[in-house]
Amino acid sequence: MPPCSTKCGKNAILKRPKTGDVLCKECFFEAFENEIHFTITRAKLFKPNSKVAIAASGGKDSTVLAYVLKLLNQKYDYKLDLTLLSIDEGITGYRDDSLETVKQNRDDYEMPLKIMSYKDLYGWTMDEIVAEIGRKNNCTFCGVFRRQALDRGAVLLKVDYLATGHNADDIAETVLMNILRGDLARLSRCSAIITDSGDGIPRVKPLKYTYEKEIVMYAYFRKLVYFSTECVFAPNAYRGHARVLLKDLEKIDPSVIMNIIQSGESLKINESANMPTLRKCTRCGYVSSQEVCKACVLLEGLNKGLPKLGIGKSSKVKKFIQEKNCKTDCLCNNK
Ligand code: SF4
What we know:
Elements: E1 14-15, E2 22-23, H1 25-42, E3 51-55, H2 60-75, E4 81-88, H3 95-109, E5 113-117, H4 118-122, H5 126-133, H6 138-157, E6 161-163, H7 168-181, H8 184-190, E7 194-196, E8 202-204, H9 212-221, H10 237-252, H11 256-266, E9 279-280, E10 287-288, H12 294-303, H13 314-324
Parallel strand pairs: 3-4, 3-6, 4-5, 6-8
Antiparallel strand pairs: 1-2, 7-8, 9-10
Helix pairs in contact: 2-9, 7-8, 7-10, 7-11
Iron/sulfur cluster (SF4) is lined by residues 89, 126, 138-139, 142-143, 231, 233-234, 236.
């Protein structure tokens, strides 16, 4: 291998996928961590003396996020109180194993851990949901429930921020997916580094400009323990196509990932487009763009043996709710 391009005197052991620089291990660590520090400070992601929940799945992204946030918090004295928040979807052979990795992270990084389960929150595990609805729309249920479960966890923990492990590839994929679907509402906010979840707890993405390949390299060279098995109910077909397209484009030019993110950031959405406004769900009180939130609608369908309710157009759902004169009390177990 050639000498490290920083001229530190050591031999390089890797080529950075993002920049093409050939670096030794220590210079790679420094460049990787400095970029995340730069992202955090430039976007003013955290105020000092804040409490931050890290959405932890046991996978590479959240493991690296927890490790690097702890390191930067100490190195630059961010004065953050860090805690781990995990969601147990109830997926046998996947989440039960990955939660063991999160518990290892808890011990290794000395951070408290809170686990919220679908079973406790909604009365259903993903195993039970899939047994009811089959393998076609499972990720719709899972995604909607997870998003709300994280919000509920963040409220319960009384944190000021919820940090997620979304990396540059995830964001670029989402921008592509929303363009392909013509989903203007999501397109306008999917590349934001801070999003308002509507409950006063911002969601922040410190790894927004960090390439997935570099996260894998960093975890490998730092010898971090993470869980790499794919969910037994994957893949989410549409996202899978966007991912394949992005990976093919990345092979031609790695800067395509940053270019797509920057394009997403620069997009101006037509003001006259039909954009949803956030309000409180009339049932569970959590944030929703509709009168009744998607999680409550999906749950209503499951509990009434109509699992397709909520998959598809919201007008159909509205009609169903009006026709059935559904009760307005909360359907969730912990309320
Ligand atoms: Fe949930 Fe689908 Fe992800 Fe599995 S692949 S964890 S079912 S969203």
